[in-house]
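agent> Task received from the user: take the single chain below, predict its 3D structure, and emit structure tokens. No templates, no multimer pairing.
agent> Plan: (1) validate residues, (2) run structure prediction, (3) serialize to tokens, (4) report one or two observations.
agent> Step 1 OK, no nonstandard residues flagged.
tool_call: predict_structure(input=
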Amino acid sequence: MKKKHLQQHIKEKESQIQKFKLRMETSDLCEDLYNKAILEKAILKKELENAEKNKFIEAIKKIIPKKKELICDYFKG
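)
tool_result: status=success, residues=77
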């Protein structure tokens, strides 16, 4: 349910962005609202991305250490 709710909000932000984009050149207020809507959309997309992640797999990834690549590894071979 949360995913659908976030997707709906993203679609609403996209329609707001389109409306503000048309009027952005004529009004400073619309330009500020456009920028704010872009930021809100990015936040909503990140929340949706986090909601879609598998929590179990993410916990395992934190436990298992990754092999760190060193700059010298690129010059081998």
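agent> Step 4: summary for the user.
The helical segments are 2-23, 28-52, 55-63.
agent> Done.
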